[in-house]
Amino acid sequence: MKRVLLVLAGLFVAVIVGLVLLWFAVAGPGPVPPATVSFTSLAPDERAALARRGEYVARAADCMACHMSPEETELAGGLPFETPVGTFYGTNISSSRRHGIGDWTADDLYRSLVWGIGEEGEHLYPSMPYTAYHGMTRADVDALWVYLMQTRPIEKPNIPHDLVFPFNIRPLIAFWNMLYRPDDRPGAMARVGDRGEGWHRGRYLVDVLGHCGECHTPRNLAFATTGPHLSGEVLEGALAPDITPDGLFARGWSPQDLAQFLATGLSPQGTPSFRMYSVLDHSTRYLAPADIDAMVAYLFDGRTDVEAAPPVAVAADRAGDGEGHRLYLGLCAGCHGSDGQGRPFSAVPLQGNTTLMFDNPRNLIRVIDEGIPARRLGGMMRMQTMPAFGDTLSADQMAALVNHLRERWGGRGTEVTAGDVADVIDDDD
Amino acid sequence: MTVNVSMTINGEAVGPVEIPEDLMMAEFLHEYLNLTGTRISCEQGVCYACSIIVDGAEGGRIMPACVTGALWCDGRSVRTIEGHATRDDEGRITALSPVQEAFLTHFSFQCSYCTPGFVNAATVLVERLGRQPVPRARLEDEILEAMNGNICRCTGYVRYLTAVRDVILATPGLVTGDEGDAA
Description:
The structure holds two protein chains of two kinds. Chain A is built from 17 helices and seven strands. Chain A has helices spanning 2-26, 44-60, 63-67, 106-115, 130-133, 138-149, 173-180, 197-209, 213-216, 245-250, 255-264, 275-282, 289-299, 323-336, 362-370, 395-410, 418-428; strands spanning 80-83, 86-89, 162-163, 233-235, 238-240, 375-376, 382-383. Chain A has a three-stranded antiparallel beta sheet with strand order 1-2-3, with no helix packed on it. In chain A, strand 1 and strand 2 form a beta hairpin. Chain A starts with a helix and ends with a helix. Chain B is an alpha/beta fold. Chain B has helices at residues 25-32, 70-73, 98-105, 115-131, 139-147, 158-170; strands spanning 2-9, 12-20, 51-56, 59-64, 77-79, 86-87, 93-95, 134-135, 175-176. Chain A binds chain B through residues 320, 326-327, 329-331, 333-335, 338, 343, 346-347, 384-385, 387, 392, and chain B through 1, 21-22, 24, 44-46, 61, 64, 66-74.
């Protein structure tokens, strides 16, 4: 008996020692290439030009989506993100030396963006998308650093993340990194032979800076984005839809539509909702037309709009009468139109609306339940408030309305029940 | 497509009336019932000049008549600006409602285009506080919240809001707690 215990204890110690050794082997960052500019010898106009470029990198990388305050002060941090492992709070990345990153070097910034290792050697949570930023070029990091260092310091303390055990033990991230952090040479994604410059630029903007996959790619149990690339995922109670070429074509998107959507937020398929609105508002509406086109070229993989095939109505006879149709005419048609044609800057068309075409009815139910605030769009345009109907409609009525909308314009015949509606609403209340 | 709708408007049974299925309440009131007091302004449900009261089990609810289909009101009970004053047997107005009276004595409006909407919103608020009184300290916030959707381009709102507050304080049972200072 004693011997068995001794062997077990020995094994236990060996495992612990092994894990500690492994930790030291994998905990550090990978190589950090030298800076592309000599920061100390920059002329004022060179520094200003580099800062402007860095601001553009910050826009393309959508730093603000996470690093703004709940009151939308950019770079101040504090915005909460609810995940299955707890609540993350975006951090202050202004030039404040006390609360922000004002005392970071460009190397520190590179190490955090590309390797997920903070200034003091601490492991960043992968909620900071270093697995995507891993591909950033050193030149972009240098420009970004010059920009961030000359932003206004915001003296606002960070809010500690509120995570459940064992996810609150930071050093364990080293093991996550061992499994899921890319270990190829950073900043040098393999070129794909037959694709052009635009496609490659688009891939850099979509997969690296834009980190679109952080929401749109399915995650595994360890919360790593290992599923089919950009094929859609539910995060924070909303569906980030399938944006593969097949997924986009199946919902009737053409490359032109998507370019318009990214640049202005207006498209025949609707306007961005949930977190995607923040992506438009803080990132894509600032991008150069050539970069928007590059993203679209990559997302459609060079295919053209002849393949766009919006779904057709199913069970069209149910559009004629019934509870859902009556509710639509009573509460929705005043703005969205008797035939779903919509009204400019007031209500999106429902003919061709992308949200009605998702297999998962979650986003549609939430929009009807919660409404949408008035929106500032790109190109000096605006979209009006959509009121919330959660207090007006029962779960049965909402299910009837959702089914009518999905059948009439979404080509979705699957029945949504009052129970489904209640589940979605309870989830998010 | 036409449909038949029936509803109660200001206490009187209306219908069945045959209407286009997508007719909005504002047109129904104006064109079919000659109730033209409901003011149509933005026609997209944001200014609340056209507000009507749709009654339900949990009391009255404000709905913008410009974008609310008549079908929604089928079988329901609706109140419009024409229904607030007391009338004699021949339909002549004998007394205004307390809210209407207060808006007049406070000079709350100038052009009056938004007034029907304010009357309805204030009336729904007064009725709600009758069912669920609020602490005196919260009253101003409650009033602002309840009236915030109504847009007025003439008077700057203050006289509307103080008129509503005075009606509420003059009506017993709408607020709880010490009226003078913090309880």
